[in-house]
Design goal:
Mean pLDDT: 92
Number of domains: 1
Structural class: alpha+beta
Number of strands: 8
Order of helices and strands: EEHHHHEEEHEHEEH
Number of helices: 7
Strand order of the largest sheet: 1-2-3-4-5-6-8-7
Helix content: 25-40%
Radius of gyration: 16 Å
CATH topology: Aminopeptidase
Low-confidence stretches: none
CATH superfamily: Gcn5-related N-acetyltransferase (GNAT)
Shape: globular
Strand content: 25-35%
Length: about 200
């Protein structure tokens, strides 16, 4: 495994990715509260079969502890997304698989007040460049509901390839939802994705 020991911090201009901390609890809850309606249609929910089998909805503290443990084990990169030093969202590289697969997926969210300003594409580009250049992963997926226009704009700016769709892929907002699959492969962007988004107008 070629993973650099956690924690990992990345930055480009005003946009930063740093480890999510227990001390982020108050700010994280405040941003999430203000954005509850904005995020609700795109947020994963626990299906009934999960509830009946004993799954629990984690508290912020539980979530950070779990993500930190999984980060040390090389299975996830749980970043707080910051803008001018303030926490404004999250970018998570999850499902990291090594061996002959060397793949992962990326999920993200941002404060609605800052959407459309190029922050999310920049953050995701940094995450992708790190995964390809430092971790030497081969394939990264971003799975998006077809109705999520804001998230579709992110992958459009990045130039990710639409590979196909997945029926009833994730339990979102109370139901199993279809998703579109966008893919980036090692070698797709020799100049790096951060340089690509830096050249684009917000």
């Amino acid at each position: 495994m070629a993973m650099r020991p956690w924690p990992v911090t990345l930055a480009l201009g005003d946009v930063g990715l740093r480890p999510l901390r227990q001390t982020d609890a108050r700010r994280w809850r405040e941003v999430r509260r203000r954005n509850a309606e904005w995020l609700r249609p795109w947020e994963a929910t626990l299906p009934m079969e999960g509830l009946t089998s004993g799954d629990v909805i984690p508290t912020f503290s539980m979530m950070v502890r779990r993500l930190r443990r999984e980060a040390r084990e090389g299975r996830v990169l749980p970043w707080a997304l910051t803008y001018q030093g303030d926490l404004v969202g999250q970018v998570t590289v999850g499902g990291i698989t090594w061996g002959s697969l060397r793949s992962a997926y990326i999920g993200y969210w941002i404060d609605q007040d800052l959407a459309g300003r190029g922050i999310t594409p920049t953050a995701v580009a940094m995450a992708l460049d790190y995964c390809f250049e430092d971790l030497k992963l081969h394939r990264i997926e971003i799975n998006i509901r077809p109705e999520n226009a804001a998230s579709l704009r992110v992958v459009e700016k990045l130039g990710l390839r639409l590979e196909g769709d997945r029926t009833s892929y994730l339990h979102i907002d109370g139901q199993w939802r279809d998703h579109l699959v966008f893919v980036a492969m090692a070698g797709d962007f020799p100049e790096g994705l951060t340089s690509r988004v830096a050249r684009q107008p917000h």
